[in-house]
Amino acid sequence: MINTKRHALRGVGLASVFALSLSLTACGSSDKEDDASGPADINAAVDKGGELTIWAWEPTLKQVVADFQTAHPKVKIKLVNAGTGNDQYTAVQNAVKAGKGVPDLAQIEYFAMGQFSLAKSITDLTKYGADKQEKTFTPGPWKAVKAGEGIYGMPMDSGPMALYYNKKVFDKHSIKVPATWDEYVVAAEKLHKADPKVFITNDTGEAGFATSLIWQAGGRPYKVDGTNVSIDFSDAGSTTYAKTWQKLIDKKLVAPVTSWNDEWFKGLADGSIATLATGAWMPPNLESSAAAGSGDWRVAPLPQWKAGEKASAESGGSALTIPEASGNKQLAYAFMEYATSGAGAKTRIKNGAFPATTADLTSPEFLAKKFDYFGGQEANKIFSESAANVAADWSYLPFQVYANRVFNDNVGKAYVSSTTLVQGLDAWQKASKAYGTEQGFTVK
User: Which tens digits make up the pLDDT trace of 392-402?
Assistant: First the structure.
């Protein structure tokens, strides 16, 4: 994933998504290509050719589209950046309301997949043989595109987490790379005491980061079975995260800097922000926006909540999906396979995307890649191991987009008031439950 910001996004209400589903069905193709299809049908669709419109913001798709059209001259593809994340989801809704212009493929982030798959506004791809692709992808991304027995997208990328750290700063202050989060807190204290201008990391409250650390800690606050949902942030993993991270907040050991702005990148470049726990898609962003830090940084496994463990989690990532309104689904599926697990996937990896494909993550060429930014380190070895250690039983809410939007209204208070993270998570739980109930879910 390139230049992907795990920021809170405005929610797309379930009622709106159900309306979207009905509209998509109404204006969808009337041909018979919704019937079960096999490889021969997909290949025939490519040979026949046609036009596709793809809405996606991921930059490596541009070359993939060009290559696919060169290989298949009868296929014409229009690649549109309709906005990132919720901007695109809103654009899809607007197109549906207008009764025209709905894309044949759309990029959707993993945390937002549930609300679209539940409403059946994107196509279940099992009819095209997508269920046979399970072993092709790593567990975290594959789980994200599944809903019940259905497969509603193909993973474009993945974000197994690692700890990026400034070796130059660590060496200067004799800081040992933390193997556990408790050690991380100790390192934060030592570092900030040695130089009050240096913080071990930044954090102002971000839903994706919090849920990823809870995921790694073994917390499973969300359970989803269709429209039956339970939300419980009192579980052991959520509590472990909250109480440990609270120590950093109480002692003012995290920089009050919001991620993805100029101040943040400046802090990463000059070492005043000394670590970053995030997904394996981060290197291109450091290379382009924190170039002055090149050679100073290294990558290490994510600190563990219990010494000796190797648990990890995903941060970010998205899938390609086929809206129900697409009139050329077989051709769309052919391109989807090419871009996510075929030759197009290798093109995207070469241009900076981080793979979700098991074969690529374990290939000698991929593992041996040296990163100049990390002093020649073969960082993909750490990222690949992280991907293998992601537990695949995490679930997002079918209205996670909304939940993420109100995270800072609740949990964010812990960073600016006497509210604790435990109290903030409880308030977030209540707000999410209230919204889910309003939208017609059975919430426990």
Answer: 999 999 999 99
Q: Per the structure block, which two tokens stand in for 200?
A: 């071990």
Q: Which residue has the tokens 């899809």?
A: 92
CB 3 within 8 A of CB 284: yes
With tokens 């496994």, the residue in question is 301
CA angle (56, 151, 89) in 5-degree steps: 30
Amino acid at 27: C
- Determine the Cα angle at 114 with ends 420 and 161, to 5°: 55
Q: Give all domains of the chain, ordered by start, each with its CATH number.
A: 14-158+316-361 (3.40.190.10), 161-313+392-443 (3.40.190.10)
Containing 78, the helix (H) or strand (E) segment is strand 75-80
DSSP code per residue over 116-171: HHHTT-B--GGGGTGGGGGGGB-HHHHHHHEETTEE--EE----BEEEEEEHHHHH
For the chain, what is the radius of gyration of the CA atoms?
22
pLDDT digits (tens, 9 = 90+) for 215-239: 999 999 999 999 999 999 999 999 9
pTM for this one? 0.90
User: Which residues have a Cβ under 8 Å from the Cβ of 189 and sit 6 or more positions away?
Assistant: 251, 253
